[in-house]
Automatic annotation (TrEMBL):
SUPFAM superfamilies on file: Acetyl-CoA synthetase-like (SSF56801)
Identification of the protein by name: Long-chain acyl-CoA synthetase
UniProt keyword Cytoplasm, yes or no: no
PANTHER family in the record: ACYL-COA SYNTHETASE, MEDIUM-CHAIN ACYL-COA LIGASE ACSF2, MITOCHONDRIAL
Keywords annotated in UniProt: Ligase
Database matches in InterPro entries: AMP-bd_C, AMP-bd_C_sf, AMP-binding_CS, AMP-dep_synth/lig_dom, ANL_N_sf
GO biological process: fatty acid metabolic process
Limits of the AMP-dependent synthetase/ligase domain: 18-348
Top-level taxonomic group: Bacteria
GO function terms (MF aspect): medium-chain fatty acid-CoA ligase activity
Record-stated family: Belongs to the ATP-dependent AMP-binding enzyme family.
Residue ranges annotated for the AMP-binding enzyme C-terminal domain, each copy included: 397-472
Entry annotated with the keyword Ligase: yes
Amino acid sequence: MSVQDLSACPPQIRCPSVIEGETRVSSSDLSWRAAAIRNAILARGYQSGARIVLLASNCANAVAALLGGLETGLIIVPVNTALPDPEKKRIFEDALPVAILTDKQNVRETGGVDATVDILSLDDLLKEDAPEAFAEIKPEVPALVLYTSGSTGNPKGVVFPRSYLDGNGKQFGEELFGLNETDVILLPMEVSSIISITLVTATRHVGATLVITRSHRPDAIIETLQRAKVTMMMTVTTVAEFVLKMTEGMDDPFPDLRIMTIGGNYVSAALSDRLAEAFGVRIDVIYASTEVAPTTYLIDRKSAPDGAAGPAAPGVDIEIVDPDGQPVPQGEPGELVVSGPRVAIGYWTGENDDSMHFNGRFATGDLGYRDEAGNYFIIGRSKEVIKTGGLSVYPPEVEKVLSQHPGIHCVAVLGKPNATLGEVVVAFVVPKKGHTLTSVELIAWSKKNLASGKCPRGIKFVETLPQTTTGKVAKNELRKQL
């Protein structure tokens, strides 16, 4: 690792101010913490390209560790502490880190790692008083690996260069969110997802304040929104629905909130209208993945038709292609292929291995179409299309209709193998509290509202839908119940 002398020092690490519980950490204080962590890591002399895992709960020190770690010239690998131990172990074995940065709450989670891996306590690093040091930061060299949520399979490590992170902060902070230094932004989950990284970089870019909540439970989010006077939040559909339900009857529950950005699942006009009316906010819609964020972004859902994910985000080119990779006519469905500077480098497959690099072009695996106004509509995952009796059924289409039933709180649709039809549609249903539903009733209702081939042949009632750590429905877990 090349370390620069102090005569060529860059400015201090740029950090946002942070509110954590009742404590406010100034941007200068967080910058000092980030620099202390950077110095302590550089003092250990790790080789260029080495991976440093960040395994810490959502807190100010974790944000400082992320931003300080990115100034070491090494590769930072944030890992969600809520992951099951076997999944953490798989990530450790895949990333092969030289060190793990952790906190008191999670140090025990590192017990099974190789003895050669350094376990570094964030509290101890902040006390080390290591000599000031600066690494050479190359914009296009890998700086961060984020593992996907695994909603449809095993998590994969997505590699990002430093230039992506700097551009991410500018694009979201200025062009999409439209933030300024007076804004207060909610950070509802650990800095191990593309959502959290986006919120940190955007907040830092505009000099705003980041509000940390240790839990992404709706009640904790509601309390934080009110106490910290949050002005902007990014969330997923399921959380937005819970927050709406839990504040029903309150008069203007979030008077400071002005923007709510929703992604992760289909955002209906009915839901966004209810949110906008109840909270007096602008509802934005984002379609993104860990590999490309954002892909589309819709500023104010009311400006586009129901179901639209918005136009392509600035700097993003989207092609819609058939199975042979050929462009399809406007309005016809196909796979979305994205290119441009918002595309990550590729998947992590080991040092000096570029076999899984995207080369600036990423096939999303998502199916959709584009209207005349340039809005994109996402209709499902190519791997999740249900082939039943010669008909292609897109689960989101069926989920959208079923969710309109007055007794359904939420629903997920999958295909179940069938000897005669190939597959049949099966719906996992969470009833609304106080509603008693039957399979016969729901199937009969479906036949009145869906084409016969799209109607569920089976209904499974469940108390909750399993979720990934980023709030998406974990359909791979539901598939085990078929």
